[in-house]
Amino acid sequence: MNNHNLVIYEFDELYKILVEIKKDINLSFEKANKQKLIDLNSKTNHLVFTKKEIPGLNNQIVFNDFPIPIFKLLEKINIEFIKKKFHEQSDIIIGNYNFNLNSRVMSFGENKLKLTEKEINSILYLFKIEKEVKIQELQTEVWGYQSQLETHTVETHIYRLRKKIAKTFNDEDFIISKKNGYKIKKEK
User: Fold this and answer.
1) CB burial string 78-109: b at 16+ within 10 A, e below
2) Cβ proximity of 158 and 116 under 8 Å
3) Following DSSP, what letter does each residue of the chain receive, concatenated?
4) Are strands 28-32 and 47-50 parallel, antiparallel or unpaired?
5) What does the alpha-carbon distance between residue 64 and residue 52 come to, in Å, rounded to a whole number?
6) pLDDT tens for residues 89-114?
7) Of 137, 114, 116, 113, whose CA–CA distance to 125 is shortest?
8) For residue 85, what pLDDT is reported?
9) DSSP secondary structure, 170-184, as one string
10) Confidence label for 44 from pLDDT (cuts 50, 70 and 90)
11) Burial of 143 (0-12, 13-18, 19+ CB in 10 A)
């Protein structure tokens, strides 16, 4: 297991088990009182394991079928951290838009736009670079084209993507055409 932050609330049996096997697992854990839970609720780098659900608490996992075999317990903890990581990586915000990377959907309010893998990769690349990106760089980094052949794949692709975004969101300036390439408009 990776080094994760596991918080245990009113679940002494689980805490004792983890203390006993601490040297055999790569997992940081701690007991929490009610005040600690309130402080943790605004943070996202933890999972709280409890015996009963706590209304309004984020990132909690309820164990209502205890006792459980140790391997099943460790498997459940690991699965919960994997799911949490998956969800954290699935949604990003660029400008006014939310992007679900897992479903490849761009959304704003009620409007949603399904994107292709190349479209989402193009947007992410432009977003990460934070400056004007040359067509040749997109061609190499997103499409994997290494040759110096004259191709209009990138321009055609970006043109179509811009039209889709304009049609769905009435936004013609999300991907900005510059003299030497493209840039994402990030401000809200």
Assistant:
1) eebbeebeeeeeeeeebeebebbeeeeebbbe
2) no
3) ----EEEEES-HHHHHHHHHTGGGS--EEEEE-HHHHHHHTT--S-EEEESS--TT-SSEEE--S-S--HHHHHHHHHHHHHHHHHHHHHEEEETTEEEETTTTEEEETTEEEE--HHHHHHHHHHHHH-S-EEHHHHHHHTS---S-----HHHHHHHHHHHHHHHHH--S-SEEEETTEEEE----
4) unpaired
5) 7
6) 788 889 889 998 888 999 999 999 99
7) 137
8) 77
9) --S-SEEEETTEEEE
10) low
11) middle
Contact 111/95 with Cβ under 8 angstroms?
no
Structure tokens at 163: 């039209």
Beta bridge partners of 176: 183
Look up the pTM and report it: 0.58
Show the tokens assigned to 177: 């055409």
